[in-house]
Amino acid sequence: MNTEILKAAEFLKKGEIGAIPTETVYGLAGNALNEMAVLKIFEAKNRPFFDPLIVHIAAFNQIEKYVEELPAKAQILAQAFWPGPLTLLLKKKSNIPDLVTAGSDLVAIRIPNHPIPLELLKSIDFPLAAPSANLFGYVSPTEAKHVEQQLGEKISFVLDGGSCEIGLESTIVGFENDKMIVYRVGGISLEELQRIGGEFELNINQSSNPKAPGMLKSHYAPSKKVIFRNWGDYLSNISSENFGIIAFDSAYEFVPTENQRILSPKGDLNEAARNLFSALRSFENSNVKFILAEEFPNEGLGRAINDRLSRASAEL
Length: 316
Ligand code: TXA
Ligand code: MG
Fold this sequence. Notes:
alpha/beta
């Protein structure tokens, strides 16, 4: 086994925490069954305790160790999308600490689709709680260096798995009487979800109500102000050096090239999703004062891109 992964496994067994790549974003991982490790995750991120963590497992047959029951729909979705960017909310067993679920009797579970965390998970005998490896409220990391910059000092290791293939967090789905409820749009598009699982309900929280955890209105935000939709007022009053632009596929003639991030010149929403978070971060050390973000087509991963931009632009 890769020695970096072995070292990481040793840290995790001792209750230490560190960053792992996944296909969605980098996660800050610790032993999900060890409350001290889980506390370290919350502390390192400055994360409020009302915001629960996703638990990562290596294989479908491990789910029965942590979950009381598996609705038929959940099984169908797991078979279709795991390993992959889908998180299922399921009734937890008592071995999952309440700290992980913020007191809820549901636990969020997924199998990541990336060789590094899969190999790591196979070398330990506990699941990994892992929120995105960023400070609370900030843009999620899609490269190891993003994690190093923010959390490097506070954690025991960062496993480098390159740039995240999907670039947006997992789609979160729960069940009520075998009906699917989508709580967060993400790496699995609603179209794909419907194709496999049929009808679903959307329950995407847009308020600041912390009871709908992690769905806080303001989230995924860089330190520069993001303006999403209704740019009109800004464009007439500012000089083009002042602002950056996040665009889907075409450039703006009146804006200097270095201030523009065109997420997919060929108009591919998957590619745009992959580039979104690093584009937001890339303005941090520039003299751009704020970021104008285009609205993306509301289909496929475009919906999740719009969701993240709208939260990144929300006032606290
Ligand atoms: O793609 C992903 O999901 C990444 C990678 C690392 O797996 N993880 C991630 O975690 O995005 P995080 O902490 O940034 O977002 C987790 C969100 C919470 O904010 C909450 O919305 C939801 O998952 N969640 C977790 N446990 C839950 C629970 N028991 N009940 C309801 N929602 C839960
Ligand atoms: Mg997060």
